Amino acid sequence: MKVKEYLHQAYRLDKRIQSDIEEMESLREMATSVSSPSWDEKVQTSQNADAKFVRCLERIMDLERKINTEVDNLVALKEQIRRVINEVADTDERMVLRYRYVHNLTWEQIGDELNADRTTVYRWHNAALNHVTLPKDPIKI
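Structure tokens predicted for DUF1492 domain-containing protein:
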């Protein structure tokens, strides 16, 4: 695994968690909505007998477990990434990595925070990637 791939894992995991939360909110809306009864005669032998909201609640509980696991993984990964970044000697390089991979700031936001132009931020970032030493047992998500 390359350094940039390792550091970028937290961002991807955070986006997956956000997507799961949005899906869960949608399921909650479905579970609390009332559907109108159907007056048509239906003859199906394989129909699920559970109400629709029950299936939504089961899916919500599954998603909550998944989200909790993902959050635990994200916390552990970010802690490991912080330790790796703190080993970079140059302060500017360390701050670029921290803002980019821990706080998920854009290049423009990082430049604003460090009072540097985009080219300087890119230069610090590229130099920092060369100074990062991956842990012996990197967390892989």
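Residues 52-86 form the longest helix (35 residues).
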